[in-house]
């Protein structure tokens, strides 16, 4: 059976991800206590269902510690299991909860000895949730949704659903340093040292995917050299990640605005590695 476990911080898009997988033909279950996962897999498998997606959150804190062992056992039984961990910056989470006017799930639970009359703040709930989930964050692929719209996240999950059974998937992501470094990046490369097309008024409204910008950057020796160096670095260390049984490797490339240089570099990197690896390309700041 193909199993996708979705976990992470509340407000980071778990419901969006689950809905995408449901549309893709997965049998979906939300807020399942991890201790019940083996029974669910057995029941669903007996009905002939080949794809299962389960969302797990921090309210099942007592059984969360058993999740890595449960995942290992399911893999030993022959199931193909992938874990997606969605996260976001505290600033983004506060804004989302404020916008939806929903309360945080942990605001309804009491810690041992806590006064029922007391109520934790939203930021306190987020901090506690990060602590509870810290042990399983590296269990799967981390996706930072801080600057991602719901529509962009849907696109990412669709790509993941299509590539989930590949031995290792290379993610190349462009971003803007002025917005912040992606939380899900394994490697971060800063290409701001390359001449900026932004200062050419004719190139300013374009992106790194447009021919005039490409021509401008290809004429810069520093751009060519940096692209070569990044390619060689990733090529050198990629076998080590494969040996470590990693399913995903995210390479983030950043410039000032996430429009010209980083987009160009991510596009070129994706094209280079697409000849030999399973590659996914995304541009965080592009709509």
UniProtKB/TrEMBL annotation:
GO terms for molecular function: ATP binding; GTP binding. Coiled coil: none annotated. InterPro entries: P-loop_NTPase, RapZ-like, RapZ-like_N, RapZ_C. Residues 169-286 form the RapZ C-terminal domain. ATP binds at residues 8-15. Pfam families: PapZ_C, RapZ-like_N. This is RNase adapter RapZ.
């Amino acid at each position: 059976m193909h199993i996708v476990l979705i976990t992470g911080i509340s407000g980071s898009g778990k419901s969006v991800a689950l809905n995408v997988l449901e549309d893709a033909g997965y049998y979906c279950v939300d807020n399942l206590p991890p201790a019940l996962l083996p029974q669910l897999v057995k029941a669903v498998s007996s009905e002939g269902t080949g794809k299962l997606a389960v969302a797990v959150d921090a309210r099942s804190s007592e059984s969360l510690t058993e999740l890595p062992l449960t995942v290992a056992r399911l893999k030993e039984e022959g199931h193909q299991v992938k874990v997606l961990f969605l996260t976001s910056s505290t600033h983004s989470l506060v804004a989302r909860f404020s916008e939806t006017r929903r309360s945080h799930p942990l605001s309804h639970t009491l810690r041992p000895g806590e006064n029922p009359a007391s109520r934790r703040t939203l930021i306190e709930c987020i901090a506690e949730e990060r602590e509870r989930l810290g042990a399983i964050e590296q269990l799967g692929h981390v996706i930072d949704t801080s600057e991602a719209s719901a529509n962009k996240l849907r696109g990412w999950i669709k790509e993941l659903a299509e590539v989930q059974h590949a031995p290792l998937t290379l993610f190349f992501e462009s971003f803007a340093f002025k917005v912040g470094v992606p939380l899900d990046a394994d490697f971060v490369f800063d290409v701001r040292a390359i001449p900026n097309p932004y200062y050419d008024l004719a190139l300013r409204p374009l992106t790194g995917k447009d021919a005039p910008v490409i021509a401008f950057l290809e004429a810069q020796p520093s751009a060519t050299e940096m692209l070569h160096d990044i390619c060689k670095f990733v090529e050198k260390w990629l076998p080590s990640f494969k040996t470590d049984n990693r399913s995903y490797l995210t390479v983030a490339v950043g410039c000032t605005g996430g429009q010209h240089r980083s987009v160009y570099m991510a596009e070129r990197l994706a094209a280079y590695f697409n000849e030999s690896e399973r590659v996914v390309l995304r541009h965080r700041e592009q709509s």
